[in-house]
Amino acid sequence: MPEQKTVRKAKEDKKKGKSPSTQAGEFVKEEIEHVRKGKHGARSAKQVIAIGLSKARRAGVNVPAQKGAAKTGPTKTKTSVSKTRSAATKNALKKEGKAAASTTALSRQAKAAAKKRTATQRSTSAKKAAKTRKRTKG
User: Is residue 70 part of a domain?
Assistant: First the structure.
């Protein structure tokens, strides 16, 4: 379940007319923090990003699914939570590594993703980003 401040920031981004990927970025940032604090485990930076995007989709952000991704229906809500299982999960997550959310791992993932795009695609998105950036005086 995403934190209320994250949902609020994503809604503000939507009101401002920002892209779905910008809105989803709030959820990805939250997930990175969760992995770094040990609240959640992940084996790779790609997994951290995927979990954040999944949370964004469930919160109503219109992020398109990756090509070839399986379509899933609404998830069932659980009625009761076992204290023993919950404690065991927390202990297991504490033992998980935090390297997946490190600056180095995230940088490596971003570079690898950028390499898959053509120069034209990168240039187009950079120009689009420059148009949406706020201009500062001075």
Answer: no
